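note to self — DONT lose this again. spent like an hour looking for the file last time. sequence + predicted structure for the chain T wanted, 875 res
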Amino acid sequence: MKSILLVDQFIKRISYLVLLCLFFGHLHSQQYAYEDKMVGFEYRADDLLKRLTLEEKISLMQDSSSPIQRLGIKKYNWWNESLHGVARAGLATVFPQPIGMAATFDENLVYRVFSAVSDEARAKNTIFAKQGNYERYQGLTMWTPTVNILRDPRWGRGIETYGEDPYLTGLLGVAAVKGLQGPRFTDQYDKVHACAKHFAVHSGPEWNRHSFDAKNIKPRDLYETYLHAFEELVKSGDVQEVMCAYNRFEGEPCCGSNQLLMQILRKEWGFKGIVVSDCGAIADFYKENAHKTHNDAIKASAAAVLSGTDLECGSSYKKLKEAVMNGDIKESEIDVSVRRLLLARFRLGEMDDLEDVSWSKINPSVIASPEHAKLALEAARKSIVLLENKNNTLPLKKDGIKIAVMGPNANDPVMQWGNYNGTPKRTVTILDGIRSTSKNSSNVIFEQGTGLVENTVFESAYAECSFKDQKGVNAKYWNNTETKGSPKVMQNLGHPFNLCTSGNTVFAPSVELTGFSAEYETVFKPTKSGEVTLQLYVNGKVQVMVNDKLVKEAKTGHGARKLNHSFQVESGKSYAIKIIFAHGSGDAQLNFDIGYDEAVDYQKSLNKIKDSDIIVFAGGISPLLEGEEMGVDLPGFKRGDRTDINLPEVQLNLLKELHKTGKPIVFINCSGSSIALGKVAKHSSAIIQAWYPGQEGGKAVADVLFGDYNPSARLPITFYKNIDQLPDFENYDMEGRTYRYFRSEPLYPFGYGLSYSNFKYGKIKAEKRKISKGDSVEITIPVTNVSNVNGFETVQLYVKKMDDSKGPIRNLRAVKKVFIKGGETVSVKFTVGEKELKWWSEDVSDMVVQSGDYRIEVGKSSIKKDLKQIRLKVR
């Protein structure tokens, strides 16, 4: 009996302990305030912060943030891109490059584009999160938009900007931020977070950006030009992140600049979000051949955090613990940054379950959807600027004429994607667009004629490849990254191949989307001697071997890139070619072809197009030549920048030969900045500026060519006559730069663009000519479409303070897109008030409304002859 009682007491005690454990287990799931979804984000961040160790805090301050399992914090990678569509994460809609969107002068369009982009970003993030993937290019913090001023057309990264004007850049930058971040509510999760970059005074050169010091900047240039858009994004856009630049500003690295980050950004503007370093920028503080302002990573990291840089893209912040131990920084000072990072993650819902976040319910079908393709087409159409149209060469007829399509950009889809891009479902090239629009595609002749800068044209010799008596390339695949064991799949590739895992498309059946490797083998037996080129476009790890000798290898970390190799061959000999490939990060991609760069033969090209009635030449340059710190050093190009702004000579020479035929020539210029097109204009009947127009660019160009769309875009940058009109590239003084300070005559001015309609401006009127500070006045101007073609006019308003001889010639302060039917007149109204009248004051070193006379100008471009004016006195 006693033993039974003892057993019974034991069971009761065990039951009590089990219940106690369950009770405390339940309490644990609710015991910390940071886990309570019913309390505010600020309170949750404060509670979690105090539970972190120093090591854990430091791990959260790096772009690839480690998980902290004991506190339920998941791994998170802060680095994601969406410059003009979700980038480097596979299938996505590819919209026109930002410089092209800037040409629309349409903030509503930009807002709608980036609202679509953030829909795709959220949907992709949900897919990744459900798979347990938290890698680079999979998160919710989008490092865009780029709102640096394109002060000089030689800068390679100008393609990422919204042009040369502070007002337009701020207007469209805010639209991009609002589209990305979505509506803001204090008690709900954010959609995604945008990032204003690169702060500040940053616009080339690319080759020395890690050591360059932007110094002796006039306060006027600083606030009036370089900082304006950033201030707009902070105050009007509520942007949640700011990225500090690589260069120095007045002797201090931008990511360690107290003046920029603490005084201006935090104190003057009240920014409360995150400052993230550009990637590797903290290492530039102490690296040789960089800024070398600090001795080592310890000192550099402490200085960066103390100056306000919360998050590092890089690895220097790993030394912050030593910085604390050395007394270079206090843990409490690190807490300031960590709290901001935690708050951002709470606000994004990234710390909570997917089902709690309404944004995670966005249907994945939005990714590269037909609706977004339609929007990409609209954006591309609205971005195209008609620069010349002699004798009404355009629009073309859809039937009855034979069209020769020529030029290096006519059939290049990759050019249209720009940079920092995703991978579209399809790309309509300019050639595709013309063929599909022409009523008889057999009347369209394609002859490339020349390369971009090289006097050659690539001709494929893939047909001369075979492996074990089978034409083409033999492919082997493994579901590991080391080609270990027996291959999972073997197949023959009989044609030049373009393999990409975007859209969950595997390289071959039964091969995984990630974590795989491959070998491609063939024997090339040429039928002629000469130099042959292996053309590759790669995202992943790749090794290229010819006759068992390693000739090329690369590991991409920022999306796919071109990787070519040329070598001499003899007719009849055999050359064993092997490519070893492995998935790296993001989508895997491998394109391959082999062939000869044939010398340009003018007579051959002329013979091929002799029966054509008109020539459409798609030329310009390419993102393979201009961009971010590239390894390109060709005539006219240096590390992604340009050393010359002329059209490459090889293209101009071919144009001259084509001009001799007497056939009308329509030149389509694809570029990310201005090209000196004066000589092109002499040999062309019409010129179109198409930028890098995205996946639907070819259709948009064809719509303009054939009159299915009436162009209304305007230049967001000045097109200069030649490089002699530009100051020294490294001189950051604004005098002599952009329409605001350029005192000479440009080739095509800022705000310029033609239409198939003809608009006439009437007399400008103001409801009153004198106002007090703080008041506003309504300005009205009648605009008449004197043609019979309906169209949009881009009406621009400029302001100038009359007694300021050293200031800008004029400043854009408002713009309206107005639809006017043929023969009709519309009264266009602007309200001019405090925001439009702010002007630089030397007395207060700021932009303020001042007493005095102002000139208000309204018209179709920034040059005087296109503007109507009126005087306004402010008391």
